[in-house]
Structure formats: structure tokens, C-alpha cells
Amino acid sequence: MNAYTSVLKLRFINGLQYRASALAGTATQLFFGFIFIMIYVAFYSQSTGQPSISLKDLVAYVWLQQVFLSIVALWFRDNEIFQLITSGNIAYELCRPCRIYPFWYAKLIAQRVSNAVLRCFPILAVSFLFPQPYRMSLPPSPAALILFLLTLVLGLMVIVAISMLIYISVFWTMSPTGSSLMISVAGEFFAGMILPVPLMPLWLQKIAYVLPFRWTTDFPFRVYSGQIPTAQALWGVLVQLLWFAVLLGVGKWSLSRALRQVVVQGG
Amino acid sequence: MSLYFKYMSILLKSQLQYRASFWLLTFGQFFIPFSVFAGLYFMFERFGHLRGWSFFQVALCFAIIGMAYSLSECFSRGFDAFSTLVAGGDFDRLLVRPRSTALQVLGSRFEFSRVGRLIQSGIVLVWALDNLPITWSFAKVITLILMIGCGVFIFTGIFILTATLCFWTIQGLELANILTDGGREMAQYPLNIYQKWVTVFFTFIIPFGCVSYLPLLYILDKVHGNKILYMLMPLAGVLFLLPSLLVWQIGVRHYRSTGS
Q1: How many helices (H) and strands (E) are present in chain B, helices listed first?
Q2: Is A160 inside a domain boundary?
Q3: What pTM value is reported for the model?
Q4: ipTM surpassing 0.85, yes or no?
């Protein structure tokens, strides 16, 4: 276990080195947040009926997306692992005295968290200062905040488990670009990153609810604004745990399958 | 110019060597804007219209910007990936050749898989045009072509500007994404739904508004007053490209090799 935590720590510190790039990313994400909110404000300004999510909650949703982008985005990838697999350097990884799945898992988590730590605070701080309607709102109760943090952490665990599957799939396809691009586009959409899940038509929402993707982003963000009440959120936590267990199981099983038939070509 | 086409055909052949990967990538590129477009469609399905703009009018706007973006990504990708050229010291080789640097960088890379994006935008364009009650005239067709063409100029101009920054920073800057990706996201919707400062910035400094919103008003017969002015608006894209090339020349003069 110790080896994995130190991988986590080292990667985390490594990730913290890229401060200038994080600053630039912060500005970009602020801009994107603004543009998205402006579009939603324009849509909402003329709506007559009762929308399925209030503008205030939607604004919080958009800002949280931008703040925690590197935690929740599926396209956030480690090309190192792809290269390991396609170039045959995976042989070195196999020589290490630790199992590959937790090793990569720790690595991926550390990357996302270090990236998010650098970026989230400036955006979060600024988003509370904007004039209405762009201002980020506070969660309605302390319980909602705690639940939000819990579900976000669980969401992170689920999304890394999903992305592990993408890496493992490269053992078979040998080309990271095509297959992973397709999965991330679909995953991104059903996670509500392009169109928030509450704004989707009902039949599409049903699909999104069945898939694991929305539990990583849409669910924590709606818990934050209290749009999903506490009692319901607790059930959601259970579903997240279930998904995590399933994805972990599938990931470990398919990795061991892949490693059994791995052929390292020369070197 | 013939050198440019030579570059293009060589790179096309080299990319087609990995056929399966190429088609998968093209296919994937088709779906990126497709999912964004689906989002737009569902928003309109829920809200009906957007400040007086109907779905197909916005879809037309979306398609034009999408086409301009994919074309410029396809052809001027060399500038986008320029930081690797500078960081690796490979730019030195371009300098000693007796051809213009801008042309060589432009020819250094083409992303033909962006055709996927182009096709998606093309389908949306046809669909939108088919459903809009536009009385076509020769001038309007010209305007439409100008919009796409000059949109390409603007995106290319931005790519060139950010590439020029690499002469000083060596690394590529993520900040530039505000102008390329951000500009694309933003210009997909008619500009008048945004706050004043956004509209002003993207009309007078980076003239996205001149290739999408303003001429669109003309095509959709929403203008009052001087129509020629709206029709010729896209030419602002050319005005944007020229100073970009000038800045590029200045940048090249400032270039110091990393030596690696």
C-alpha cells in the first residue's frame, strides 16, 4: 500500500510544478464559464414556463464544471501510459514489485487532483465575486456541502476507474486516438458537460441515468446546489459506490486478461 | 503556391498510410461538434427560440463558424503545433531554406481528419438552409462564401499570432485557447445575446462578429439601411490576417534558437 501512496504523493508534487500553465488555464476556464452562462441567461430570459433547474442552480453547475474541470473531464489523459503500452515499455512496468492497476490508478488520481488544486481556488474565489446573475451561490446547508465533497471524491474515483478502462482498451486496439475519442465524446455528453442533464429531454435523461458518466459530474454538482435533496443524495452515494465496485472489478479483470496475452515486441 | 500543394499531397499520403486510425479519427472528429450541436438542438427544443432567433437561424450561424474552424484547423495546423518546432530547434532548418517561413510552417502539417468536422458542419449548413425561408440572390451566395472564407482567415490569423508568441515564450500558451476554442464556442451563437463587452471585443478587435453575426443579418433580411456594408463585412477577416502576418515577420526577426 505504501508504494502506491508515495506514487500518489510524487505525482502530486510533480503536477504542482506547472503553475504558469495552470494560470493560463484558469483564465480560459473563467472565460468559458462566462460564455456558457451568458448563453443560458439569454435562453432563460424569455422562458415562460417553470424550467427544470433554476438559473441560480444552473450558474453554480456551470462554475463547478469549470472549477473542477480537471477532476471531472473524461478527456484528461495521460499520454505516458498510452506510450508505455504501444511502445512496449510496459515490460518495465511489469518488472515493478507492485501491481499495475493500483499503480496507474494512484498516478491518474494524483494528476487530476494536483491539476485541480492549482486551478480551483482562483476560479472559485473569483466566481463568488461576480455581479448577478453570474455569481456563484453558496450551498443551501452545511449538510449539502459535506455531501457535495463526498460525492465529488466518489465521482473522482469512478471517473478514474472509467478512464482506466480506456487505457486498458489500448492493449487491444493499439491506437489510443480513435476509440478513446469516441468514448470521451459520448461520456462527456452523458455526463452533462455539454448540456446539463436536467435540461435534456426526458428520454435522454433516462439514458444518462443508466450510464455511469453522470454520477461523476452531474450528480455532485446538483447536490451542491441542493437541487438533489439530502435524502436522495444519500441513495446516490450508494449508487456511486456500486458503480465504483463494478468498474473496478471489470478493470482489474480485463487488465489481467490483457497482461496474460501481452507480447512485448523487441526493444 | 505549387510548393504548398506539394506539401499537402505528401502529408495526405502519409496520413492515409494508417488507414484505420485515420478513419476512426475522422469519425471521432465528426462527433465532437455533433454532440455540441445536439446540445444546441435540445436547448431550442426546450426553450423554443433565443431572443428572436429561431433554431435554424442559429444552426446556420453554428455551421458557418464550424466550417471556418475546421477548414483552418485542417490547413493551418502547422501554426498551432508551432511550439514543438521552436522548442525542438527545428525552426532553424526552415530559416535556411529560400522560401518564406510562413509558407513552410503552414505546409509543415495538415490535419485531414478534420474533414469529419467539416462534414458535420456541412450537413448542418444544408439542413439549416433547407429550412430557412431565404429568397436567394447572387449577392447572398457571395456573402455566404465570404463568411466561411474570411472566417478561415480569422482563425488562421489567431493561430499565427499565438505561434508568434512562441518566439518569446518557447512553450505554447493555453491562454490562446480563449481566442480559438472560446471564439468558436461563442461565435456559434448570434453575438447579440451576449453582454456588450463581449460583443465589442469580438467585433472590433477579433472580428468574429463580422463573419458571423453581421452578414447573417443581411442573409436573413434583418438589416435596415446600407446592405452592401453588411455584405462586405466578412472582408474584415482579411484585414485581421494581414497584421497577423506582419507580427509574424517581426517575430521571426526576434527568433533565437533554443539550440537543442
Answers
A1: 16, 0
A2: yes
A3: 0.83
A4: no
